[in-house]
Amino acid sequence: EEVINRIAAGEVIQRPANALKELIENSLDPKATNIQLMVKNGGLKLLQIQDNGTGIRKEDFEIVCERFTTSKLREFEDLHKISTYGFRGEALASISHIAHLTITSKTKHDICAYQASFVDSKLQGTPKPVAGNQGTIITVEDLFYNMTVRKKALRSPAEEYQKISEVVSKYAIHNSTVGFALKKSGDNNDIRTPPESNAVENIRIIYGNTIARELIEFSLESTPFKFKVHGYMTNVNYSTKKLQFLLFINHRLVDCQSLKKCVDHVYSTYLPKNMHPFVYLSLELDPGDIDINVHPTKHEVHFFKRRTDYRKYHNCSRDKIVGFKQ
Ligand code: ADP
Ligand code: MG
C-alpha cells in the first residue's frame, strides 16, 4: 500500500517546482504577507518556506498531513465556488510520502511555536514546543529519496532551480501585496519583492526595466459572460526566444496551451515575425465554467460550456478593450 501512496504522491509532485507551488499556495491561503523561500540543490536537498500567516494549531498537527484532510472545503457544493487554492488536502500528505517533512508553526493564540516531523502522512511523536514567530515554516528535505527513478528523470539542479525561480516570479507578480524572497542556501536573495508592491513594480524587479517600461495595461470585463481579464503585455521583443506567458485563471497559475497559441497567433498576425512578447494575463471566470480538477497537479484548467462565447472574444479588437493605456 505504501508503494501505491508513493506513486500517487509522485503524480501530484512531479518535480521540486510543483512542491513549491503547493507550498506557496498553502501560505497564501492563510493570508501571509511575507513568504521566504530557501532552496538547496535545485530543491532536492532542501525546500523551505516560511510565512507569517495564521499558523497551524497544535491540535491540528495530528491531521494536517492526512490525505484528503483540508481545513478549506466545507461542503461538496463548495467545489464550485472555491476561493482558496487548496481544497483537496493532498499536498502535504503527498510530500510526506516522498520526502522528509518538518512543520513548525505558531498561531497568535499560542505562546510558543510547535514543531513536528511527518512520515507517510503520520505525525511522529508529539509536537515539541520551540521558539518561533507567528506563521508556519515547512521544511522539505531529500525530495524523492525513495523514488530513485523519478530522481534520475529530473533535470540538473540548476534547471530545477530555474523552474522554481519561475514559479516564485509569477506568484510574486500576481500577488504583489505579498513580499517574496527566494534564495539558494548561502547565497544572497535571487528574488526579493517588497510587500505592498504592485505588478508593474514586481515585473521591473524580476524581469528588468526594459520590459517594465514597455508594459501596456489592459482590462476587459463582461457582466453577461461573467468574466474579467486584466494584465500587461509588451509589444517589443523580449530577450528569450519564446513567448513569456504568465497565465492565472481565478488566481491559479495554470497552463493552457490553446490560450497560449491564441496569444501567439495574435502577435504573429499583428507584429513582425519573431517578436516574442511578455504577457501577464489574469482571467477571472465563473468557477462553474472551468474545471481545475483535471490533473493532480492542478496545473491545467479545462473550460466547460460557453466555449464558443469565449471564442468570440478571441478576435476582439483593441477598441473593445477598456482601460487600454500605455
Ligand atoms: P489543502 O491546501 O488542499 O487544504 P494541503 O495538504 O496543502 O491541503 O494542506 C493541508 C492543511 O494544512 C491545510 O488545509 C491547512 O489547514 C494546513 N496548512 C498547510 N500549510 C499551511 C500554512 N502555511 N499555514 C497554515 N496552515 C497550513
Ligand atoms: Mg494546499
TrEMBL record:
It is found in: Nucleus. This is DNA mismatch repair protein S5 domain-containing protein. It comes from the Eukaryota. Residues 203-309 form the DNA mismatch repair protein S5 domain. Belongs to the DNA mismatch repair MutL/HexB family.
